[in-house]
Design brief:
single chain, 178 residues, alpha+beta, Trna Endonuclease, Chain: A, domain 1, 5 helices, 5 strands
């Protein structure tokens, strides 16, 4: 008999705790456009350089940008391995510094300026991710210079369709809703 009231109290306490927790959980942020994501990244780089100046390591800038994106509710993966297929064998192409929101690829550098080899490295990652089905909307090399500044070299990407999903335009959505 003593187990039932205890179990009832435990259940009520758990339900109360769960309902309070649910009210504290924030809703997901609205979907961002690719341009808005790059604007947030640019503002983050500006903030990092204003606050910490040059002379830091690439890993430091990498972590600071990752924290900036986290505070803006933008998911990112770091050190994402890229593979290309050589026949039936996957071959490691390299590691992407930051893959943001499944749409943006960033390669971070600490150098006096963006060099052609940095851009070719980025394009190698873009081609690899596009071949795996990722719809890359933005790709850029971000170079933190020794003059308390940064340079962003965005790459022009051709429109690519996914092998796995058929993309629809907003106009098609309104037609289907009516």
């Amino acid at each position: 008999m003593h187990l039932k009231p205890t179990l009832l109290l435990l259940t009520l306490a758990t339900m109360s705790w769960a309902s309070r927790l649910q009210t504290l959980v924030a809703p997901l942020p609205p979907t961002r456009s690719a341009a808005n994501t790059m604007e947030i990244i640019t503002n983050g780089c500006r903030f990092i350089m204003d606050r910490h100046k040059s002379g830091q390591t690439e890993a430091f800038y990498h972590r600071m940008l990752e924290i900036h994106l986290y505070h803006h509710g933008i998911p990112c993966l770091k050190e994402v391995e890229c593979f290309a297929m050589a026949g039936a064998v996957p071959v490691l192409v390299g590691r992407i510094d930051l893959e943001i929101d499944h749409t943006t690829i960033l390669e971070l550098k600490v150098a006096p300026k963006v060099l052609p080899k940095h851009v070719s490295q980025l394009m190698k990652y873009v081609r690899s991710r596009q071949a795996s089905g990722m719809l890359v909307q933005n790709a850029a090399v971000i170079c933190f210079t020794d003059k308390d500044d940064f340079e962003i070299h965005s790459v022009e990407l051709t429109e690519q369709t996914s092998r796995f999903f058929k993309l629809r335009h907003e106009s098609e959505d309104t037609i289907m809703d009516n």
